[in-house]
Amino acid sequence: MYFIKGDYIPLIRNEIYLYSIMMMAACGILVTLNSCFSNCAYQNICATVLYTLVLLLGMGLDALVGHNAFMFMGTVSRELDVSLKQAVRLYYGKNETLTKAVDFLQFEGACCGAFGFVDYPKKVYEDGDTFYANGSYRVKPKLQYIPDSCCWDYVVGCGKWDHPNNIYLHGCTPYFQNEVIFNLNMTLYLSALVLGIHIFELLLIFILCVFKPTDKAKHQKMTKVNGAKGHRDFLSI
Q1: What's the number of domains the chain is made of?
Q2: Dihedral, CA atoms, 69, 73, 78, 79, nearest 10 degrees?
Q3: Is residue 152 domain-shared with residue 175, that is, in the same domain?
Q4: What pTM, to 2 d.p., does this model score?
């Protein structure tokens, strides 16, 4: 979600979710760095130990990301209800980051407001009311209270007409919840997959360490090979 629909992130007020994004990035960096010297780890005992420690650290971060995603799954609906409602009713038009996030959500989700277009209160007077000024009646200017991102066909200023054929009537909360829940499910699946890969790599390291020939065994093998070669050379003479 961070890379594909990163504009949604300001609407999610859960700090654990935001920290999980950072941990996923850190885990990816560790895996990349670890893969760079994986070949050296087989040839040097110090590199093997370092490779294993970094691998264990990556496993810990990955497991923590999966745990956080699972915990957030239980409260995501309630938290998104509150955060989206506050963003629309309290901060829209006042906070540039949240305004941009809400507009992006409404445009992508083909929706309006948290629970409907009624989240944007109409002005005190009705559009088209007349008032008396300077000796004559004049029509009050039509004011826009619904964002253009709520329109079926986006055009600058289209939100001035709040007709059902012009704006979306349903809210964005269900769409937003589905997007975040889908992202959490993908996070859980990826965490489980990466954790399984890490465990497989640990097993490979264990097998390589157990069956890797020692320096003494290599020396004995080379001695035997050199002895056999010298014996053949002597017989050929």
Answers
A1: 2
A2: 10
A3: no
A4: 0.72
